[in-house]
Amino acid sequence: MNGFLKKRFLISYFGIFLLSGLISLQAQMSTDLKDFIWNRDFKELLDLYADEKIILTDEGDYTKRIAARPYHEKEGMRIQLFAGSDSINALKVASDITALNLDSVYVLKENDLYKVQLGNFTERIEAEKMLNRLYFVGITNAWIVKGTIHEPKKEQEKLIATSVSDSDETNLMVYAIQVFVTRSHDKAQLLSNRLSQTLKESIRIIKQGEYWKIIVGSYTSEEIARKKLNEIREAGFPDAWLSQVAE
Amino acid sequence: MVSAGKITMSKIVPYCPSNIIRYIIILRHFILFILPLILFISNCAQQRQIRRPGVQEIQIPFIRVALDDNMKKGTLTFINEYRLQSEEATYILDSTLGEFQVSFSDNILLLKSSDRRFKFENFNKIDFNPVANSKFRWNGISYMGQISMVKSQDQLIIINSLSMTEYLKGVVPHEIPSHSEEYYPAIVSQAITARSYAYYHLNYPSSLHFDVYSDTRDQIYLGLKQNAPLANKAIEESKGMVLQNEKGEPVETQYHSTCGGTVDLKYKIEGITSEGYFKDIYNDEFNCLTSPMYRWVEKYSSRDILTNLVNTGKLTEEKAKNMRENGFTMEIEITSRSNSGRIEKMIISLNNINITLQSYEIRRVFRPSGGSTLPSTLFFIKKSGKHPDIFYLIGAGFGHGKGMCQWGAIGLALKEKSAKEILGFYYPGHILKKIY
């Protein structure tokens, strides 16, 4: 093999080796982040994984409000029963027609004109059927108008909307109180026993490296954890500090 | 200081004519050798004093601590006897007068209790002087020493002046866990570091009117709030010990809670490492693994950051409201890190509005919900895989990362290292010296 080929081979080999290493580390990071960040040199973590730029998007309240509606807006037809400047009359007409329980009733205000409309129809024939029903109950001064109508969303769409807003990723760490750290397990056990007589919270002894830590409680909010910290300090453990531990 | 007046002849020689010549010889020796020597030593002592104005050696120095640098309202109780000297009289103040409500507005200072009322209009400084070891209570916390009220540019500063020893007793237990014998070398290290820091500020005060603040701007000082016998013992045993640079000058020995594995050497310690940081590691184990804030994770939405930007004055509420209503894109970019990995500069772009954040601003803007500030700037960002507006900061340590890592010192103490070894580890190139 001549020198040039040998050089190219070495570069390719090194490149593949580096790439495979990074892929495996990336996989490890996503699978077990907690242990990963705890046991490694943070400076090396930064050099390997620091995402120095992220882009976040927020669709805004207006878009959220539109998304939260149980219907889509589209072009169609409605039956108009009233159009006038008198709002009291408009409400009376709306109330009378609602009592008949025929379809959805809408009171709109457009250019200082109050309108009472009935139903959401995509086809003219459906609107005409409704007009006939109105004739039968004695309402003869209604007419078909074109405009924006509400089309109900399908059940599947509603489900997706709620799942996105309600579900969340599991918290990686929880707040807790570190009361003591020592290299002696016996000491940790002794203090843990003493603490269990004083405090009602859960008490854990965690081993980290050569150290034993006594950890009290588990809180999802820092605010609650801080309140508990003050209580523990006042209970005779002034060296207690706020901490975060892997759940 | 050496005084010529204190030197006496130790040998008594009886008077007789045969001794006159010996007297003359002794007097000649005295004039020729001893007197110039005394004058030389005396001159040297005076020169040493000139190099450090305002700071006395040998005696325990006094320090002026600002309890509040912009007081509007407060409460004051004289637990023991204090004296207030005015032009017309000397007032004796003690616990029988009850609690004073102190207020300052329109350049008028009022002290009101159920029994007494003091009003000060044209004043610069009011001193309440303790009789012996008298104590007072300011806003519910007891202190020892003098309390002064100083007017400076329409603001009122409350200052507590006391001996360095008493000051350190109010600092050390609030800066490091001080109730375990196992931590003792770390507590001694903290006492020396806090004393060195304070001693530096005696030479370079934080303000014209006082030497140090009583909060994280300098060192946390809470008077007699916590009695920690181990801290008191450490302060007494290390009495007068300070860290100095190789020229023998005082140094501002900064320290912090938890380095997270890397200590920043960027400030004031030059020529120690070329990288500007060192790993806080001993026997293949990070020393601050002991810390409750060794690693941490905080979760945010882009709206949390929007709110924090408004609260820190980086964005107007009007613009934020518009963005909340109509949506926005937030780009967070880290543009500069120190050699230890701490973020020095970052840019937040909001719908093309660029906001630059530096050092402590970063910790304020990324304040976690329900918390005070972000623990440190040693972190990386991870975007949520599920939500386009959620992200996590995965970080290490607590504090600025300069000088001694307090939990690292505890880690070293648990590994049976002495205070001298701990200080040597965190302040390489410094000299430990007893100055009083």
Number of strands of chain A: 9
What is the number of beta strands of chain B? 27
**Largest interface, Cβ cutoff 8 Å:** A-B, 52 and 68 residues
Spatially, the strands of the biggest sheet of chain A line up as 3-4-2-5
- The share of residues in helices of chain A is 40-55%
Output mean pLDDT of chain B: 87
Structure, described:
The complex is a heterodimer of chains A (247) and B (436). By secondary structure, chain A is an alpha+beta fold. Chain A has helices at residues 3-31, 33-39, 42-49, 61-68, 87-99, 124-136, 155-166, 185-198, 222-234, and strands spanning 53-58, 71-84, 105-110, 113-121, 143-152, 173-182, 203-208, 211-219, 241-246. In chain A, a hairpin with a 2-residue loop joins strand 3 and strand 4 (113-121). Mean pLDDT of chain A is 81; it is low at 14-31 and 161-168. With 436 residues, chain B is an alpha+beta fold. Helix content of chain B is 26%, strand content 31%. In chain B, the strands form 8 sheets. Chain B has a 7-stranded mixed sheet with strand order 4-3-8-11-12-1-13. In chain B, strands 7-6-5-2-9-10 form a 6-stranded antiparallel sheet, with no helix packed on it. Chain B is globular and about 100 Å long. The model of chain B is unreliable at 1-16 and 42-57 (pLDDT under 50). The chains are: A alpha+beta (247), B alpha+beta (436). Chains A and B meet through helix 2, helix 3, strand 1, helix 4 and strand 6 of A and strand 19, strand 20, helix 7, strand 21 and strand 24 of B. Strand 1 (53-58) of chain A pairs antiparallel with strand 21 of chain B, so a sheet runs across the interface.
